[in-house]
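can u do me a favor
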C-alpha cells in the first residue's frame, strides 16, 4: 500500500503541501480534489518521485519513493504517471506508442496486448495513425493506454479526461476505471470534475491551503459537505438558515414558508430549471420543474 508520512514540499519558500499524511490501500481508487493551484498535481508528482521532499517520506509497500537527489532516473517500474501535459512520440503510430514499454521478445503477445489496450481506450481504428495527427483527446487516450501497457501496481492520473469530449468521456471513464478495479491496480486521480469521482472513487482526499481538509467516502462527503468549498465541488448550493449548506435539489418551491425569495435568473438544465434568487442580501439556488418569471416572489423550503 501507499503511505505518505508527514510530507512537506515547497517549490520556492512557501510550502505547497504541509505536513501531509495519507495511506491508500492496494486496489483502492482515490480521488484528489481541490481548487486549481491547491497542489493536486504536485502531490501526484511527489508520489511519483519527481521532486525531493523537504520533509517526510513516501512508501509503496516496503519501498521508499525517492526523488532525483537519490535516483538517476525518475520513477519506478511498479508505477505509472499520466501527466496533465502528457507526451507522446509524435512520429510513430498509436500502436507503437502504446507498445513502447512492452518487450519485443514476444511479438505475438505484444501485438495482442496492444489490441486489448486499443479497445480499452477505443482507438482500434487509429492503431496505425501517427501520434502527431491525433486530436488532444485522442492523444490523452493513447497516453492512458501506454501507462496501462505493463499493468502497473499503482497508476497516477492527472485530470485524465480533461481533453476528451463529452461524447466519449462517460464511456471511456467507465471502461478505464472498471479495468483498473478488475486488475486491482491502485489508482490516484487528481480531478476537479465530480463525474470522475462519484460512482468510482472509494475515497476522496480534499486539498486546501496546503493541507488535507477531508478524507472521506464519496457518499459521506457529498451528503455532509462541511465546507462551502466542498459543496461547490458537487454542485450548486446555498448557505441559508436554518439549513446551513444546502444543494439546489434539496430546496423546493412551496405555497408558504419562512423563506421568501425574489427570482433573479432561470437556467434550463435539461431535467430541471436552476433558479437563482435573491434572499435578503444573498443569492440562493434551487431547482424547479418549470421556468419562473424574473422578479417573481416565491417561497422555498427543504424538500421532504
Ligand atoms: P493543482 O494541480 O491543484 O492545480 P499544482 O500542484 O499544479 O496545483 O500547483 C500548486 C501550487 O504550486 C500552485 O501555486 C502553483 O503555482 C505552484 N507550482 C506548480 N508547479 C510549480 C513549479 N514547477 N515551480 C514553481 N511553482 C509551481
Ligand atoms: Mg493540476
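np, heres the sequence
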Amino acid at each position: 500500500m501507499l503511505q505518505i508520512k508527514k510530507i512537506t514540499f515547497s517549490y520556492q519558500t512557501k510550502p505547497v503541501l504541509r505536513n501531509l499524511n495519507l495511506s491508500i490501500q492496494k486496489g483502492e481508487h482515490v480521488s484528489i480534489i481541490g481548487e486549481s493551484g491547491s497542489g493536486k498535481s504536485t502531490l501526484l508528482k511527489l508520489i511519483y518521485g519527481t521532486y525531493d521532499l523537504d520533509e517526510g517520506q513516501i512508501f509503496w509497500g516496503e519501498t521508499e519513493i525517492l526523488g532525483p537527489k537519490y535516483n538517476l532516473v525518475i520513477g519506478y517500474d511498479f508505477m505509472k504517471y499520466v501527466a496533465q501535459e502528457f507526451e507522446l512520440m509524435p512520429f510513430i503510430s498509436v500502436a507503437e506508442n502504446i507498445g513502447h514499454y512492452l518487450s519485443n521478445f514476444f511479438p505475438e503477445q505484444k501485438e495482442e496486448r496492444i489490441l486489448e489496450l486499443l479497445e480499452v481506450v477505443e482507438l482500434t481504428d487509429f492503431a496505425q495513425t501517427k501520434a502527431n495527427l491525433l486530436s488532444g483527446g485522442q492523444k490523452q487516450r493513447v497516453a492512458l493506454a501506454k501507462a496501462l501497457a505493463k499493468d502497473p501496481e499503482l497508476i497516477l492520473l492527472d485530470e485524465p479526461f480533461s481533453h476528451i469530449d463529452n461524447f466519449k468521456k462517460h464511456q471511456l471513464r467507465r471502461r478505464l476505471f472498471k479495468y483498473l478495479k478488475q486488475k486491482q491496480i491502485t489508482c490516484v486521480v487528481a480531478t476537479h470534475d465530480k463525474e470522475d469521482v462519484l460512482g468510482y472513487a472509494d475515497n476522496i482526499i480534499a486539498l486546501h491551503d496546503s493541507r488535507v481538509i477531508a478524507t472521506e467516502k464519496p457518499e459521506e462527503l457529498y451528503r455532509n459537505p462541511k465546507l462551502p468549498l466542498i459543496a461547490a465541488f458537487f454542485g450548486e448550493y446555498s448557505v441559508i438558515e436554518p439549513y446551513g449548506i444546502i444543494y439546489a435539489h434539496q430546496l423546493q418551491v412551496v405555497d408558504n414558508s419562512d423563506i421568501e425569495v425574489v427570482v433573479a435568473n432561470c437556467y434550463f438544465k435539461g431535467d430541471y430549471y436552476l433558479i437563482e434568487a435573491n434572499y435578503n442580501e444573498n443569492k440562493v439556488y434551487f431547482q424547479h420543474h418549470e421556468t419562473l418569471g424574473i422578479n417573481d416572489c416565491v417561497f422555498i423550503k427543504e424538500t421532504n
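Residues 40-41, 84, 158, 190 surround magnesium ion (ligand 2) (CB under 6 Å). hope that helps!!
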